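FORM 7B: Structural annotation worksheet

SECTION A. Query
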Amino acid sequence: MATTDIGIDLGTANTVITLGRKGVVLREPSAIAYHLRTKEVLAVGMAAYEMIGKTPDYITVVRPLSNGVISDDRMAQYMIREFILRVTGKRLLKPRIIICVPSFITDVEKRAVVEAAMSAGSRKAYLIDEPIAALIGAGVNIGKARGNMIVDIGGGTTDVAIVSMNGIVTSHSIKVAGNTLDQAIIRYVQTKYKLLIGEHMAERAKIQLTNLFDPREDVTMYIKGRNLVSGMPEQIEISETEIFEAVEDEISDIIEAIKTVLEETPPELVGDIYEKGVLMAGGGAMLGGLRKLVEHTLKVRCVVAKDAMNCVAKGTAIAFKNIDNLLDGFENIAIYQYQA
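SECTION B. Predicted structure
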């Protein structure tokens, strides 16, 4: 039986998997629905995500990752194993697996990620820093002595890094990203309108109404929830301006993280960044007006990566060809050899 290299972008919000030369073969929410009485898993991925906020007390929907790291080892292992079986059809024998991780996680957290991969039947497990994978996936040649700046805004974390000669020169990660913006919208609507909305509704409002550069009062949508005073269902109209007010503080944190990295970067590399611009990746990179806001605030050209949501996962697939060259960004945390 043949083996195939599997790349995994293990995200707080979504898990993306690449398989050999096929590229991206799976993109599913990082979620599991679990029956508390029978102790069985009812659904994984999109099917579980759609159950959020709609289950009885004895069924819980778990997100095994929080802020970019594994918070529930057992559920994470089950989820990764299930996703791998979906894409391989149980045909592969002990594949090599490479998993993206935020650049700030601890050795203990790295070990949890590796063990999750090994539990899925991998013969070798590797970890790669997300900023490295994002740049590679975006088609950037990181082997030269030139500065490349990446801002990767995922579901749980925002990673900002300067990469040169296959390694991270300086980086900064914050636990502010897509999920944080959703929660900010939920809090804003609850405070201003006494209306409780769910995660799905908040995410929809974020995607449709976020305009971070020139928000307008006349661009609106209807959102539904439960009135906290009457307890009855209610629908209100909300505008781009209000969504901007809701997420303004969180976006400011992301801008500050970018500034922090630039301030810590050697001047020669800053010159390269000024010339080449800032590359943005991840789902958050596509928020309306964010690119213009970064350009306006930092006075540096900003580019959103092609296929921004999948470029980290694509980078994992390409990285297998560059294991010898990726000195700092590519870590062989543990190689477990299975006995024949």
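SECTION C. Observations
The chain is about 35% helix and 30% strand. The chain has a mean pLDDT of 88.

SECTION D. Sign-off
Analyst initials: ____
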